[in-house]
Specification:
Number of strands: 12
Radius of gyration: 20 Å
Low-confidence stretches: 1-30
Strand order of the largest sheet: 3-6-7-8-9-10-11-12
Structural class: mainly beta
Mean pLDDT: 79
Oligomer: single chain
Helix content: under 10%
Shape: globular
Number of helices: 3
Length: about 220
């Protein structure tokens, strides 16, 4: 664990929604940075890459702005892309001691949609057997901070009743405020898992590695 690793210097990056609202405001003659009537001031505040902008504490995941996307190989020729929703999650955030950061996220194993033409049969290797295992869960065990707002998050992934060690290559997207003004931190991450580690079905060998992309916002309780 990289205790003492320095975080990168902060830089300010405005979100696209803020730019749109700001453009409307300026067109109406309202000074930049001033929220028009009916628009919360928190929406106008720009996001920042400074980890210290989010105070230490426990954050809950924002289910509306979090998702998981998996890219599953189709016989080594193409990929099926499936999206999953997040059920619940918490993050203990500590910018002064990144090694103390902890993550616990549970994902709904039933996807939002399946390929329209090719229906995945429940008994196939691509099925997550959601009737028996309705959720997947990741619990972090260590956070290793790198330069550029990036980190490797080691943890345990439980999928289809099997728990294996995995790693997420994560990046801080931005820190700002929720609509209600609460500190909010957003991240993106990529995780590669071997399908054969979680199921013994013969087709698992043809699927091989699965790339999982995780995007999440966390709001301080």
């Amino acid at each position: 664990m990289n205790n003492g690793t320095r975080w990168p210097k902060p830089w300010i990056a405005a979100a696209s929604l803020t730019l749109v609202v700001a453009g409307v405001v300026q067109a109406q003659g309202t000074p930049p940075g001033t929220a028009p009537a009916g628009v919360p001031a928190a929406m106008m505040a720009p996001a920042t890459k400074d980890p210290a902008a989010a105070p230490e504490g426990t954050y809950r995941i924002d289910l509306e702005h979090s998702s998981v996307v998996a890219r599953v190989s189709h016989r080594g020729m193409s990929y099926n892309v499936v999206r999953f929703g997040v059920r619940e999650g918490t993050m203990h955030w500590n910018p002064a001691d990144p090694a103390a950061i902890a993550l616990d996220v549970t994902v709904d194993a039933k996807p939002y949609y399946a390929p329209i033409v090719y229906k995945i049969p429940p008994e196939s290797a691509q099925s997550l057997n959601v009737a028996k295992f309705p959720e997947a869960r990741f619990v972090s065990t260590a956070v290793h901070v790198k330069d550029g707002g990036r980190a490797t998050i080691d943890g345990q992934l439980t999928l289809m009743g099997v728990t294996k060690p995995v790693a997420i290559e994560a990046e801080l997207v931005g820190i700002g405020r929720s609509m209600e003004g609460a500190p909010t931190a957003g991240f993106t991450g990529t995780m590669a898992i071997n399908w054969g580690d979680f199921t013994a079905q013969p087709m698992a060998r043809m699927i091989g590695k699965v790339t999982v992309v995780l995007d999440a916002e966390f709001i301080r309780n």
